[in-house]
Amino acid sequence: MKCIALLFALVFLAASPAVAETYTAGSIEVSNPWMRATPRGADVAGAYMSVANKGTEPDRLIGGSIAGVSRFEIHRMEMDGGVAKMRPVGGGLEIKPGQSVTLTPSSFHIMLMGLKQSFQQGQHVKGTLTFQKAGKLDVEFAVESVGAAGPMPSMQGGTPPAH
Fold it and tell me: Which residues make Cβ contacts (< 8 Å) with residue 63, sequence separation at least 6?
């Protein structure tokens, strides 16, 4: 009976969601990079992640690239008179020492423009982030649904909510 329970536990662990991906360059740690799927013919997409600075000096996310995308810009969503407006972040996004910044659809985010392809839910898209001090960091974005508010629970190392 113990052998069956052990076998069941091993099968369950093998089938459980993967632990969230974390990428490191210098003192910068990027976790949970994800993006929204895009409808066929869309020209823009958004990408999101958490960026932590484990060092003692500030650093800046100043750009990046993804194959099949013409422009990669850092933007911020702000409310202006009850209207949401996206604006580029001049000079890049500062990540202060010992702090982290979470890029989300309703705040700081990556704006991908001039898409030459659509992104489909379930895909994993390779990209490169560029930091002022830490340099280039290769990451892989998990593509979530068109209206996703964040990465699926499996991307965060948790379990999906019960239905």
Answer: 72, 73, 74, 92, 129, 130
